[in-house]
Amino acid sequence: MKDLFGQALLDYQKGLFTEDIITSTSISDEDILPVSYLFRTFKDMPKLEQKALRLAKGSVLDVGCGAGSHSLYLQNKGFQVKAIDISKNAIEVCKLRGVKQAEVKSLLNETETFNTILLMMNGTGVFQKLSKLSKYLNHLKSLLKPNGQILMDSSDIKYMYEDEDGGFWMDAHSNYYGELDYYLSYKGEQEDPMKWLYLDFDTLKLACETVGLQCDLVLEGEHFDYLARLS
């Protein structure tokens, strides 16, 4: 990966901002992702994120931490937080912003244990595909201290396949409808396409039960999104 997402964060952090990130998916047109939004404070976060941060307890792992906004909020509240991301530039931004423990690392390479694991901003995206879900959930389970919790958000994007008559045009022979190709460009340069998973709650709950995790619906958002607590 070229790490264009991380480069955008680093440019913004260093005062070199000139343009936002452009995103699209295999089923949606181009959209603008304002870089400033990735540096948001608690009051500018969606209700699902605010709720997740309020539920945090003990030592915290922030997976896919980006610019570190969630980590910083919790750290300032006195929590011991470890922030990880596969983006080298994002981790540099976290450190520049004051996150004390930030590492370039993929979730599957993490080995420490925590009381709370956070996966925010469609946290199920890191699972990539439905076929990898059990592998990731089993690994997350192995990172939990006794009575620990995993807080993650996602969206049921079934509505994106709805036609004018209220029916759905999903191909029964294709993959799970929440498996998307995610495209990103920054300053005219294209990032390599990524696999990204949006997961409906019932599918997540069933997968959790299969690996011995309890999955509870904590809060529903305004647009088919939700916050789940796994324990």
Give a structural overview.
With 231 residues, this protein is of the alpha/beta class. It contains 6 helices and 12 strands. It has helices at residues 4-13, 47-55, 69-76, 88-97, 133-142, 201-210, and strands spanning 21-25, 28-33, 60-63, 81-85, 102-104, 114-119, 144-155, 179-186, 189-190, 194-197, 215-220, 225-230. The strands form 2 sheets. The chain has a 7-stranded mixed β-sheet, with helices on both faces. Strands 1, 2, 8, 9 and 10 form a 5-stranded antiparallel β-sheet that branches. Helix 1 runs parallel beside helix 4 (88-97). The protein is globular and about 50 Å long. The mean pLDDT is 95.
> In what range is the share of β-strand residues?
25-35%
Distance from first to last alpha carbon? 33 Å
Low-confidence stretches: none
Bulk shape: globular
Rg measurement, Å: 17 Å
Mean pLDDT across every amino acid position: 95
User: How many H/I helices?
Assistant: 6
Structural class: alpha/beta
**H-E string:** HEEHEHEHEEHEEEEHEE
Total strands: the figure is 12
Q: Give me the side-by-side strand order of the main sheet.
A: 5-4-3-6-7-12-11
Largest sheet: 7 strands, mixed
* Proportion of helical residues: 10-25%
